[in-house]
Write a structure and sequence with these properties.
By secondary structure, the protein is of the alpha/beta class. The protein has a single domain, classed as Rossmann fold, CATH 3.40.50. It is about 25% helix and about 20% strand. It contains 7 helices and 14 strands. The strands form 3 sheets. A 10-stranded mixed beta sheet has the order 1-14-13-12-11-5-8-4-3-2, sandwiched between helices. β6 and β7 form a beta hairpin. The longest helix has 19 residues. The two termini are about 35 Å apart.
């Protein structure tokens, strides 16, 4: 549990006492909790309710670029109903650690959006990172070394999100950006890269890492000055910042040091794993995340 110190910066939302037992001893492995959700397999054919399909923007036809789209089980083509959209960026890959946590770095391997939504009520869009030429997906960072040009990734995101909303009934006022590991960094690095893309989002869910905390990443723009410029585009929009163990503490310390105030909620997942599959099983953290998102979307709807 992270509780503001006496007289501390008030931009942080403190979480309930339910967090404390999770960090009282060794953290469990996600394998110790049976999953109650399974990400649907990729299907062929056009998108439909309950289907997860590989897709590409028309402008990228004939290239190796693609994203993955899931329409919720309760989706209908009724133009009168608009669905909130979870847009997700994946972690780096190939990755494997001592706990057996694995990340392919591919759009096909993402899990956060499905675990958060349970497969209902949200359109789930998994976006790629593109190479420097914008002609193929990449599994390490964005672009290619040494330039690591984020431009093609930013451009694809700016085009894909409104296109999906237009064609499948996404609500442009209720788009939430989430990501795991590299994707958590991308929530700000890509999602707040410029004023245009920053306007897309109503909230953010970065899981495990945060833009500006580690200044040793290999791509240009990982320094604190550049990260701060991106952070200032966040404005009053909320972020649910979560990590395994006490990993969110470093993010809180960094945000306190910036002098920027914001609507930040910090949470431990309650597991030891660096693995987005934590959301596919029941936990206090998943309950809290879902409640946070529900409250945010209700506020967004009431503000119209």
């Amino acid at each position: 549990m992270i509780i503001p110190r006496s007289g501390a910066w008030t931009g942080v939302l403190a979480l309930g006492a339910a967090c404390a037992p999770l960090l009282a001893g060794p953290l469990p492995d996600i394998a110790s909790v049976p999953a109650d959700l399974e990400v649907p397999p990729l299907s062929g054919g056009p998108p439909a309710a309950g289907k997860r399909v590989k897709q590409v923007l028309p402008a990228k036809g004939g290239t190796a670029v693609h994203h993955v789209l899931y329409l919720p089980a309760d989706w209908t083509p009724d133009a009168a109903r608009k669905f909130p959209v979870l847009v997700e960026f994946a972690g780096n890959g190939p990755y494997r650690n001592k706990h057996g946590d694995v990340s392919s770095g591919k759009v096909e391997g993402s899990k956060l959006g499905y675990g958060i939504s349970g497969g209902r009520g949200f359109i789930w869009l998994c976006l790629p990172y593109l190479d420097n030429a914008g002609g193929a997906n990449v599994t390490q960072w964005w672009g290619e070394k040494p330039e690591y040009d984020p431009g093609p990734t930013v451009a694809y995101c700016r085009a894909a999100v409104p296109w999906v909303c237009e064609h499948y009934g996404g609500d442009p006022q209720r788009i939430v950006l989430c990501g795991f590991s590299r994707g958590a960094i991308a929530c700000n690095f890509i999602g707040l890269h410029d004023d245009t893309i920053a306007k897309l989002w109503s909230a953010f869910i970065p899981y495990s890492h945060y833009d500006g905390v580690n200044t040793g990443w290999p791509y240009p723009g990982s320094d604190r000055e550049a990260a701060l410029a991106r952070l200032k585009r966040l404005g009053n929009r909320p972020q649910f910042i979560c990590s395994e163990g006490t990993g969110a503490d470093a993010t809180r310390s960094y945000l306190e040091s910036t002098g920027v105030t914001g609507r930040w909620t910090f949470r431990t997942t309650g597991f030891r794993n660096h693995n987005d599959a934590w959301v596919l099983r029941p936990s206090p953290a998943r309950n809290e995340l879902r409640a946070w998102l529900k409250a945010h979307l209700e506020r967004a709807a009431a503000a119209r």
